[in-house]
Specification:
Largest sheet: 8 strands, mixed
Shape: globular
Helix content: 25-40%
Distance between the termini: 48 Å
CATH superfamily of the largest domain: Metal-dependent hydrolases
CATH architecture of the largest domain: Alpha-Beta Barrel
Number of helices: 17
Bound molecules: 3-[(4S)-2,5-dioxoimidazolidin-4-yl]propanoic acid, fe (iii) ion
Length: about 425
């Protein structure tokens, strides 16, 4: 018996480890796993013996490219219903904010989500998550925020946990109780926040269904002061925070998030340079969401140059949700972050691997091809890593390895069919 379980040889590796080489490239390399961990990464020349003496399984991948499994660090993929009719309204000129203020938007999804059973939500969500996995995702974050009451929020989070147990993927969950004001609290926003803090947060923490806490700090969401109260409560329950900030206006949410050592601030189209500086000092990741920008036909670009200038790590994510980003595709985000936001293909790939791991607090364990990290590998039929951002609407994934084992897509995933 050899010491390692599997070695992939004749591989081109985009390790995404900060080696100084673009993409952390190792051409003509090999990578080995034992159980669920990477135990060796390097060039074929550096192997200390014949591959079949080192590992029990030798897989010759004939020059294909290997990247870390992709990480979608911001989704709302558990929801009931669809919002196709709002899409039609928006195409007629009604804005996202107008729809939200008229009681549609997030609240309409809330109604459908509250009505759906846990089982129905699982059934609706499995093909959505399968779609992300088919494109190379090995970690996906899923938020609540369509329950907006204790039991429905916990239902959404439990569904997310069930999805992670049902499919070959690592699911991270985020409690987003402060997403929108439910109609029964109309005119009583302070009371709702009190309920989030006094009732929901302790129950969510107690249930163990959330890995982090998020809020929607926005003119159509919650104020900075309300967000701060939610963050204090999260801290009291030892839950890390992240924030939907500066998507439609600048309320200073990103700076507030930085003050709480947030893992990430997300959207950020309207963020100021001072807030970017605060994020840099706190190590808060900037998560940009080109799907929502595209679907809402926004024009204010997130300040990628300021993130670069001040050394803020940039992640990209699908923001998959039924309203502003009905787009269960991280590969498309790689393309859009380049075409729409002028990121480089290398920045885009770092945004969907290394920096996305950091945005979830998982940097020690995931996001790069390095010894000791999880053996989550995506093997691609491409000639160079930039192709992952270059193709749009095309999936060059060859094989996906999760925790050291190749996923059998036909047997383990659920067929497409996105309807709820
Ligand atoms: N910002 C978003 O991008 C999603 N939530 C949020 O606060 C959109 C959610 C939705 O429209 O259903
Ligand atoms: Fe979002």
């Amino acid at each position: 018996m050899a010491d390692w379980d599997t070695i992939w040889i004749n591989a081109n590796l985009a390790t995404m480890a900060g080696t100084g080489m673009p993409y952390g490239k190792i051409e003509n390399g090999a990578i080995a796993a034992k159980c669920d961990r990477i135990v060796w990464v390097g060039s074929m020349d550096a192997l200390t013996g014949k591959p079949d003496t080192l590992a029990n399984h030798v897989v010759d991948i004939a020059g294909k490219w290997v990247t870390p499994g992709l990480i979608d660090c911001h989704t709302h993929l558990v929801f009931g219903g669809s919002r196709a009719s709002e899409f039609e309204q928006r195409l007629q000129g009604v804005s996202y904010e107008e729809i939200a203020r008229a009681g549609g938007g997030i609240v309409s999804t809330m109604t459908a989500t509250r009505e759906a059973s846990e089982e129905a939500l699982v059934r609706a969500s499995l093909p959505r998550l399968s779609n992300l996995i088919r494109e190379g995702c090995t970690t996906v974050e899923i938020k609540s925020g369509y329950g907006l009451e204790k039991s429905a929020e916990i239902k959404q989070l439990s569904v997310a946990r069930t999805l992670g147990e049902s499919l070959p993927v690592n699911v991270q969950t985020t409690f987003l109780g402060a997403h929108a004001l439910p109609p029964e609290f109309k005119g009583r926003q302070a009371d709702y926040i009190e309920q989030v803090i006094e009732e929901m947060m302790p129950a969510v923490a107690e249930s163990g269904t959330a890995d982090a806490v998020d809020a929607f700090c926005e003119s159509i969401g919650f104020t900075a002061a309300e967000t701060e109260a939610v963050f204090k409560s999260a801290q009291a329950h030892d839950l890390p925070v992240k924030l939907h900030a500066e998507q439609l206006s600048d309320l200073g949410g990103a700076a507030l998030a930085a003050r709480f050592g947030a893992l990430s601030a997300d959207h950020l189209e309207f963020v100021s340079e001072d807030s970017v500086l605060a994020m840099a000092a706190a190590g808060t990741v900037a998560v940009v969401l080109p799907g929502a920008f595209y679907i809402l036909r926004e024009t204010q670009l997130p300040p990628i140059d300021l993130f670069r200038k001040h050394g803020v790590d940039i992640a990209i994510a699908s923001d998959f949700n039924p309203g502003s980003s009905p787009v269960p595709s991280l590969l498309l985000m790689l393309n859009m972050s380049c075409t729409l936001f002028r990121m480089t293909p290398e920045e885009a790939l770092a945004g969907a691997t290394r920096n996305a791991a950091k945005a979830l607090g998982l940097a020690a364990d995931r996001g790069t091809l390095e010894v000791g990290k999880r053996a989550d590998l995506a093997i691609w039929n491409i000639g160079q890593p930039a192709e992952l951002a270059y193709w749009a609407g095309y999936n060059p994934l060859h094989t996906l390895i999760h925790d050291g084992t190749a996923i059998d897509f036909d047997a383990q995933l659920v067929s497409p069919g996105l309807a709820a």
